[in-house]
Amino acid sequence: MADLKIVSATGKKGGTYSLSDVLSQASIPTHLFHRAVTTELANSRQGTQSARTRSEAKGGGRKPYKQKKTGNARQGTIRAPHYAHGGMALAVKPRDYTKALNKKERRLAIIGAFQAKVEAGAVIVVDKIEFATPRTKDATALLEKAGAGSARRILVVLEAHDTNS
Question: 118 with 75: CB under 8 angstroms?
Fold first, then answer.
């Protein structure tokens, strides 16, 4: 079992908190991290890009010039892809990029990421978080006292919903 040190809201170190075996000793395949990250990134894409094809470009309702006796190649419309202001060949259209990840795989990937943070020493257990009023200034002061002030990203997990925390 992994033991984490408990820090009080004032920054004093208290007892230890032991993690369960599920969180501390599970062996997680590394490909699950890749699948979880690519799924998250793919699901965050909007997929709203769109370009006009030759049928959607404005104009070009008649032949630009007659078929024969001009010496030029045959043309049916000036909105073909090789003309200026013509439609795009093989234009991109809106599509859905979402991917699915099994619940067990997702859970294992989260446990593995948590294990990596524990091994790196980036997990802090604070005994009690409470504020008189919900203010960012108070929250940042508490995080700095607990030792997480210089971290770039911080995830705070609470036991129960609290409107002031």
Answer: no
Q: Strand, helix or coil at 125? A: strand
75 C-beta neighbours (distance < 10 Å), count: 16
| Dihedral of the alpha carbons of 19, 22, 26, 31, in degrees to the nearest 10 | -110
Selection from 5, 6, 10 nearest residue 144 by Cα? 10
Could you tell me if 32 and 109 are in contact, meaning their C-beta atoms sit under 8 angstroms apart? yes
Pairing of strands 13-18, 3-7: antiparallel
Residues 43-74: pLDDT tens digits? 999 999 999 999 999 998 899 999 999 999 99
Identify the bridge partners of residue 125 per DSSP, sorted by sequence position: 6
Please tell me the distance from the alpha carbon of residue 119 to that of residue 113, in angstroms, as a whole number: 10
Q: Which of 4, 16, 36, 6 is nearest to 113 (CA)?
A: 36
CA angle 12, 18, 19 (to 5 degrees): 125
pTM for the full model? Answer: 0.69
Q: What is the distance between the alpha carbons of residues 165 and 156, in angstroms, rounded to a whole number?
A: 10
